[in-house]
Amino acid sequence: MKPRMPDQQASLNILCHSNIPRRSEGLRIVDDGPLYGARLVAMRRFLRGDLILRLRGRPAVPSFRSIQVGVSSHIEGYPFSFLNHSCRPTAIVLTQQLEVRAWQELKIGQEVTFFYPSTEWEMVRPFVCLCRAPGCIRYVAGAKYLSPHLLGHYFINPHVRTLAAAALAQVAAN
């Protein structure tokens, strides 16, 4: 049985039919030192659903800088390699459209973040989450290590849902 992620199609429809800027201007990379590293921040206001940037990159092997865009494919590129994780993300990565869209309104100076397990099945370099958001998952290792119930609270890309369904089917077969 395929796990259903609640309200994702409705949310996706809202996001894809909002005002779409033609360029991904209004972003800046800010370096916060060795603990947090560099981050991508909004230099203009983005409304929920606005296109923040397009994912233009090259095929890559899985790394801490790549984004998984398919069951077995990753891409790497600038500036999206500076998108950090948050358990309360400000943006979502739409891997089929190769876009990053605002999941909530972003104000000038606010960091553009996304929920890494929404694209990553199994991470090359897991880490302890420092986001301090209510409901933080604490350890970010990929969707493979999260329950379908927990994943149901987030936007999850189709390739991750496919991998989760296959994992559940394998467990059910054993």
Overall form: globular
The assigned structural class equals alpha+beta
The overall average pLDDT, rounded, is: 87
Beta-strand percentage range: 15-25%
**CATH-defined topology:** Beta-clip-like
> How many structural domains can be distinguished in the coordinates?
1
Estimate the helix proportion, in percent.
Answer: 10-25%
Please give the order of strands in the largest beta sheet: 3-9-8
Please give the alpha-carbon distance between the first and last residues: 15 Å
Radius of gyration (CA) equals 16 Å
How many strands, which pairing sense, and closed or not: the largest β-sheet? 3 strands, antiparallel
Give a written overview of the molecule.
- This protein has 174 residues and is of the alpha+beta class.
- The protein has a single domain, classed as SET domain (Beta-clip-like, Beta Complex), CATH 2.170.270.
- Helices cover 17% and strands 24% of the residues.
- It is built from three helices and twelve strands, in the order αββββββββββββαα.
- The strands form five sheets. Strands 3-9-8 form a three-stranded antiparallel beta sheet, with no helix packed on it. Strands 4-6-5 form a three-stranded antiparallel beta sheet.
- The protein is globular.
- The N terminus is likely disordered.
Could you provide a short overview of the structure?
The protein is of the alpha+beta class. It has three helices and twelve strands, in the order H-E-E-E-E-E-E-E-E-E-E-E-E-H-H.
Task: Describe this protein with a few key phrases.
alpha+beta; Beta-clip-like; three-stranded antiparallel β-sheet; 12 strands; globular; 174 residues; disordered N terminus
